[in-house]
Amino acid sequence: MDQFWKSKKVLITGHSGFKGSWLSLILKIYGADIYGISLQPELNPNLYELIQDKLSFSSKESFLDIRDRQKLSKKVNEYEPDIVFHMAAQPLVRRSYLDPIETWETNLMGTLNLLNALKNIKKKCSVVIITTDKVYKNRNVEYGYRESDELGGNDPYSSSKAACELAVYSWRKSFCESDNKLNKLLSIATARSGNVIGGGDWSIDRIVPDTIKAFKEEKILKIRNSKHTRPWQHVLDPLSGYMMLAMHNFISEASYNEAFNFGPKIESNTTVIRLVKEIIKHWPGEFSEEAQKDSYYEAEMLHLQIDKSYKLLNWYPKWGFEESVQRTAKWYKDFYENNSAYECMLNDIKTFFKI
C-alpha cells in the first residue's frame, strides 16, 4: 500500500480535526502530496496545530466552510485531487440537538457541495465519504448492523449522516453511472466506522477526552450513560480501512462504489463503564455514575458487522479493545510528560503499519 500513495494528490476535508490530523500524517509518511480544506481549529490544545510544522501544507490548505459552495468548488478545481477523503462534519450528537440546522447544512449540504465540485472532473478520482456507525435505524438490540440494513437516525446528527448516505447513493446513480465516460472517472464510496479513540482527541463531550481531563486534574469523572455500548476502536484501524477502500476504487477494474463498515473486533463492543475502568488500569482516577439530566436521546447499543470489508478489501482491525485503550492512555501520558505530539503519533503509526 505504501508505494501506491507516493506522489498521489490527496485532498482531505476536515484535515485539521482529530481523525484528519492522524490521516494527514500517515499520508505524509507514505509520500502523498496532501491538500486540506477545513475550518480553523478552535480547540486548545489542538492536535493539528501541534503537528502542523511536520505536515508541510503551506499553500496546499484552505480554511473555509464547506457550506460555501463557490469557495469550495474553486479550491477543489485548483487542487485537482486523485483521492478525496471527506471528513469535514459537525460530528457531535449532543451539539446537533443544540444547533440542528448547522448540523444538517454541514453534514448533508456540505457533502453535496463537494460532490458538485467534483462532478465534471477530467481525471480518475477516488472519493471516500466518511459517515458514521449511527446511520442505521437503531433498535437497541444485540445485532451487528450490515451495510444493507435500513438507515435511520433519531437525533439530528445521526439523521443528517443517514441523509448523506442517501444523497451519495443518488448522486452516484445520477452522475457517475450514466453513458458519459467522463463521469465514470469519479468513484464514490462511503465509510461507516465505530467510536474511535486515540491520542490527541480533545473534543468536547467525548468520553476519552473527558476522562483524561478529569484524571489529569485529579477530579472525579462524571459518567452519564455508563451502560451504553459502543464499538470502540483505535483511530488507526478505520483510517487504514478508508485508505484501502480509496486505493481499491482507484486501481481496480471492479467497482467498490458502495458503503463499507469499518468496526472493531467483536470483544471491543462494550460499555462506557468498561472503557473507563480499562483507562484506570493505565491512568488511575475516580468516577461516579450520574443519571442523564437532559432529555437528549442517545442509542444504547451500537454494533457493526465488518465481514464485507474483510471479504472485499481484505481489511480487518489490528488492535483489540485492551490494546487500543492502553495505547491511547500511553499517548496522553507521554504527551503530558513533555514528549511531542508528533513523536507520540509517529510511534503508534510505525507500530501499526509496520513501517
What's the helix and strand layout?
Elements: H1 2-5, E1 9-13, H2 18-29, E2 33-38, H3 47-55, E3 61-63, H4 69-79, E4 83-86, H5 93-98, H6 100-118, E5 125-130, H7 156-175, E6 186-193, E7 195-197, H8 207-216, E8 220-223, E9 229-234, H9 236-251, E10 259-262, E11 269-271, H10 272-280, E12 286-289, H11 307-313, H12 321-336, H13 341-353
Parallel strand pairs: 1-2, 1-4, 2-3, 4-5, 5-6, 6-10, 7-9, 8-12
Antiparallel strand pairs: 9-11
Helix pairs in contact: 2-3, 4-6, 6-7, 12-13
State the low-pLDDT regions, or none. Answer: none
The secondary structure category is alpha/beta
Question: How big a fraction of the residues is strand?
Answer: 15-25%
Number of helices: 13
Question: What is Rg?
Answer: 19 Å
Strand order of the largest sheet: 3-2-1-4-5-6-10
Mean pLDDT value:
92
Helix content: 40-55%
SSE succession:
HEHEHEHEHHEHEEHEEHEEHEHHH
Major sheet attributes? 7 strands, parallel
Morphology:
globular
Q: Give the total of beta strands.
A: 12
Describe the protein's architecture and organization.
- With 355 residues, this protein is of the alpha/beta class.
- The chain contains 13 helices and 12 strands.
- The protein has helices at residues 2-5, 18-29, 47-55, 69-79, 93-98, 100-118, 156-175, 207-216, 236-251, 272-280, 307-313, 321-336, 341-353, and strands at residues 9-13, 33-38, 61-63, 83-86, 125-130, 186-193, 195-197, 220-223, 229-234, 259-262, 269-271, 286-289.
- The strands form 3 sheets. The protein has a 7-stranded parallel sheet, sandwiched between helices. Strands 7-9-11 form a 3-stranded mixed sheet. A two-stranded parallel ribbon has the order 8-12.
- The longest helix is centred in the middle third of the chain and has 20 residues, at 156-175.
- The chain is globular.
- The termini are close together.
- 45% of the residues are buried.
- The model has no long low-confidence stretch (mean pLDDT 92).
